[in-house]
Write a structure and sequence with these properties.
By secondary structure, the chain is of the alpha+beta class. The protein is 45% helix and 16% strand. It has helices spanning 15-25, 36-46, 85-111, 119-129, 139-155, 178-184; strands at 6-13, 29-30, 63-70, 160-165, 168-172. A three-stranded mixed sheet has the order 1-3-2. A two-stranded antiparallel sheet has the order 4-5. Helix 1 crosses helix 3 and helix 3 packs across helix 5. The longest helix is centred in the middle third of the chain and has 27 residues, at 85-111.
């Protein structure tokens, strides 16, 4: 099929998700298999199942995004159907996780510069970068997520493997935390 054959698909989302995706890709969104969001949507097209547990949550999805999707990428079962509440929840949850991961990576990059950035400074720069407001995502939400992320890095540091016999190995927990290893290098 020709690349010119595009359809526009509307998906209800939270304002936070719309702002983040529009800052990342522009509007209307051009979904391809090369983006994580595109892979997620294609998966949702294929497995649309109704789950009544998510119907009561639809009131929080007050915004919507319009996506350009090439016709050959649309799954046949999607034509003429609406996204289920489960699909709306799954997509928004996926993007919100990406937002949290982006913040964590953004904070790590800034902190690796050696300048003593506060989490509040990093938060302010992050929400400005994506056109968000404190009403969209609270400082405490990202701060707690970042602290959990840092704690997890400290726990899951490089494991040392010692060969005990020819056919077996033992994993020995490191003696230094992640932060101590980074400081030593």
């Amino acid at each position: 099929m020709s690349k010119d054959l595009l359809r526009y698909v509307k998906l209800p989302v939270k304002p936070l998700v719309r702002k983040y995706l529009e800052a990342k890709y522009g509007a209307p969104l051009r979904i391809t298999r090369k983006t994580n969001e595109g892979k997620m949507l294609i998966s949702l097209f294929r497995s649309m199942q109704h789950d009544a547990r998510f119907d009561s949550r639809m009131h929080v999805y007050t915004d919507e995004i319009t996506m350009e999707v090439s016709v050959n990428k649309l799954h046949k079962r999607m034509r003429g159907r609406q996204f289920t509440s489960r699909a709306v929840f799954d997509f928004s949850d996926f993007v919100e996780t990406q937002i949290s991961d982006s913040f964590n990576a953004f904070a790590d990059v800034l902190r690796s510069t050696g300048y003593r950035w506060t989490v509040n400074d990093i938060y302010t720069m992050f929400i400005q970068r994506y056109g968000l407001t404190p009403d969209d995502i609270a400082f405490e939400t990202l701060k707690r997520g970042y602290n959990r992320y840092r704690d997890a890095l400290n726990e899951v540091s490089v494991m040392e493997v010692k060969i005990v016999e020819k056919k077996s190995a033992v994993i020995v927990p490191p003696t230094l935390s992640y932060d101590e290893m980074r400081a030593a290098s």
